[in-house]
Specification:
Beta-Lactamase; Arc Repressor Mutant, subunit A; five-stranded antiparallel beta sheet
Length: 355
């Protein structure tokens, strides 16, 4: 088997002495190699063929050790310093700040004060264009003083009827109907004209005042004698010369419901100013009556407790039995428990001090 071409080259290189190679590093040498792997020096019918090949020898580094020289011992690992070239850190550029759009608020409208409401005495000083609000405020203040000075709810209702009949212009009568659970319907009125209309209402069980108390809504009629809703009241209204009626619902601490009724003599006599004044009075009266009812309940509870103590002392019974005795006595006499308790306390006081 013929030898490869590379093997022949390596054989030629090994035949050159090392000293000659070191002395002439850049010289060229000629080698004879067969033209074909099968045509060697001893091959028949094949003459020698000269092939010129130039070997490029890389010059040695000037500081490199000579061939065959001993290499220096490696340095300790601690003496080795690895220098890593610093890399340039490129920070991302900050995003562009886009300014927020300017918020434009609409300008406040100029307040124009009419010249007729400017007080001449001072620039910009407002004067009250209408005295109605001042009058209503004065009425409510006077109403509060009158009702809060009452001893109980019944007295406060009487004062409310009298006050409203005189405070509302054109009213000939004011009646206050109150329906209380367990006590029925009570009527308080001020003004002689129109009394027959109230009597007909309670006899027939229908009318503007009772309807306002039941429905909790404002009830108006500008001509009661000809109003088809209450035909039973037509004759009474004609006899009393009452035409217009305004009934405003009235509540007292959710324990009593009722209505305040105003009677007007002339037809179409209910005007807005009159109605607003009456409604303001009723709204204020609801708050005042609620406070008076709460005060009465506290007073009644104290009176009943004192009467229970008297019964326990007289009979030597328990608290539950004493309450039953007080309740049975009130039912037998046809009186409320508060009145019986007051009489019992007065009798016990007279027994202790006979003078």
């Amino acid at each position: 088997m013929p030898a490869p071409r590379r093997s022949a080259e390596r054989a030629g290189q090994r035949s050159t002495p090392p000293a000659a190679a070191a002395s002439a590093p850049n010289q060229t040498r000629r080698t004879a190699r067969p033209r074909h792997p099968g045509q060697g020096a001893g091959a028949p019918n094949a003459g020698p063929v000269h092939h010129t090949e130039t070997d490029h020898v890389i010059p040695a580094h000037p500081n490199a050790p000579a061939v065959g020289a001993a290499l220096p011992a490696p340095r300790d690992a601690a003496d080795l310093t690895v220098v890593v070239p610093a890399q340039e850190i490129v920070l991302p550029s900050a995003p562009e700040v886009v300014p927020a759009p300017e918020l434009l608020l609409p300008a406040a409208p100029d307040v124009v004060i009419p010249s007729e409401v400017v007080r001449p005495g001072g620039p910009g000083a407002l004067a009250v264009p209408d005295t109605g609000a001042v009058e209503v405020a004065g009425l409510l203040h006077e109403l509060s003083a009158r009702l809060l000075s009452a001893d109980n709810v019944a007295e406060a209702l009487d004062r409310l009827a009298v006050f409203t009949a005189g405070a509302v212009p054109g009213a000939v009568r004011c009646s206050v109907a109150l329906i209380t659970e367990g006590q029925g319907t009570s009527l308080t009125a001020s003004g002689s004209d129109g009394r027959g209309v109230d009597d007909c209402q309670f006899e027939t069980g229908e009318g503007p005042g009772l309807e306002a108390a039941r429905t909790r809504a404002l009830v108006l009629t500008q001509d009661l004698p000809n109003d088809p809703r209450w035909p039973a009241l037509a004759d009474c209204a004609r006899d009393e010369d009452v035409h217009a009626v305004a009934a405003i619902p009235l509540d007292v601490q959710r324990t009593s419901v009722g209505a305040l009724s105003l009677y007007i003599r002339r037809p179409q006599g209910i005007v807005p100013d009159m109605l607003l004044t009456a409604m303001a009075i009723v709204n204020q009266a609801e708050l005042l009556l609620g406070e008076i009812a709460r005060r009465d309940a506290l007073s009644e509870g104290a009176t009943v407790d004192r009467a229970i103590g008297v019964i326990i002392a007289q009979r030597g019974c328990g608290v539950r039995e004493a309450y039953d005795v007080l309740q049975e006595t009130a039912q037998r006499l046809g009186m409320d428990r508060q009145a019986v308790a007051e009489r019992l306390i007065a009798a016990a006081a007279r027994a202790r001090d006979p003078r």
